[in-house]
Amino acid sequence: MNVRRWDTNNLARSRAKRAGSSAPTSRELRVYKKYLLRAIRGKRHPRVLVLGATPELRDLAIGKGCETLAVDMSEQVILAMESCMRYRDNPRNLIMKCDWIGMNTFLSEKYFDAVVADCSLNNVPIHLQSRVCSNVAKLLKPGGLFITRNIVDIPQLYPKDIAYFQRLYNARKISWLFFWLILGSYTSWREKVVHVARREVIIANLCKLCTVAIRNGDVQFRKEDLRKIENIQTHGKTITHFTFMRDEFEKLLAKYFRIVAREDVPHCEPFPIYALRKK
């Protein structure tokens, strides 16, 4: 995990513009809320760990009365994200600058009722994701839940046809964000964006292809969404996502957790939200 990807004021500010980012939607937040409430039911002093600085997840947990610790390796991103938070001044809003490999050195085992994450594992190189999952399992109380959205690769799911996704976007069946990401993974662009052997999605290549395609009129976004595309590409060009095939990812999860649920959004199946109970 490379802090230099995020740790500049410009990139931190870009990520904090939540309308033009990969922030969880209201629909997705309802899924997080459902399982978070299940995890903290009956707890007098619930504790939640957030992998990353996602303000929506921090606000959700704090709003439900949870002591909420956000762990991220970039202090600038944590602080920039706090500017978006409703509960930024709440005493339950706690932060720690650390990576997720080393966090167990400073945190007590069996301390948290829930761990929540929004595509956090996609920022972790493939060979380290098992260690992060192991760390999360150790930090959860018995029966605790790990609630995480993750990008998974399902190449057989869709036709490799830009026009197909353009129609879904035009009909408002998929969001601007999903349309943008899907162009790199499930169209003819895939060979230039996805390194299958290394399980890498090179977002910088997606940004370049999308910029040219928009300029040439090969793909069309609504005017209000073009501004969001411009913002997300400001920090997106620094990112490489690490993405398992869905079956591989679920096999990894099964080492440490029981899969309670996998919530798939229609037309957005590569972005499932998992509710995972510690074994």
Question: What pattern of helices and strands is seen along the backbone?
Answer: HHEHEHEEHEHHHEEHHEHEE
Structural class: alpha/beta
The amount of beta strand, in percent, is 15-25%
Compute the number of helices.
11
Number of strands: 10
Strand order of the largest sheet: 3-2-1-4-5-10-9
- Distance linking N and C termini: 27 Å
Portion of residues within helices: 40-55%
Low-confidence region ranges: 1-20
Radius of gyration: 18 Å
Mean pLDDT: 89
Profile the largest sheet. Answer: 7 strands, mixed
Q: What overall geometry do the principal axes of the alpha carbons give? A: globular
Any key phrases for this structure?
single chain, 279 residues, alpha/beta, 7-stranded mixed beta sheet, 3-stranded antiparallel beta sheet, globular, disordered N terminus
Write structural notes for this entry.
The protein is α/β, with parallel strands linked by helices and 279 residues long. The strands form 2 sheets. Strands 3-2-1-4-5-10-9 form a 7-stranded mixed beta sheet. A 3-stranded antiparallel beta sheet has the order 6-7-8. Helix 5 links the parallel strand 4 and strand 5. Helix 1 runs parallel beside helix 4 and helix 2 crosses helix 3. The longest helix has 15 residues. The N terminus is likely disordered.
Short description:
This protein has eleven helices and ten strands.
Topology overview:
Elements: H1 9-16, H2 26-40, E1 47-51, H3 55-63, E2 67-72, H4 75-82, E3 93-97, E4 112-118, H5 126-139, E5 140-149, H6 162-170, H7 176-185, H8 190-193, E6 194-195, E7 200-202, H9 203-216, H10 223-236, E8 240-242, H11 246-253, E9 257-263, E10 273-278
Parallel strand pairs: 1-2, 1-4, 2-3, 4-5
Antiparallel strand pairs: 5-10, 6-7, 7-8, 9-10
Helix pairs in contact: 1-4, 1-10, 2-3, 6-7, 7-9
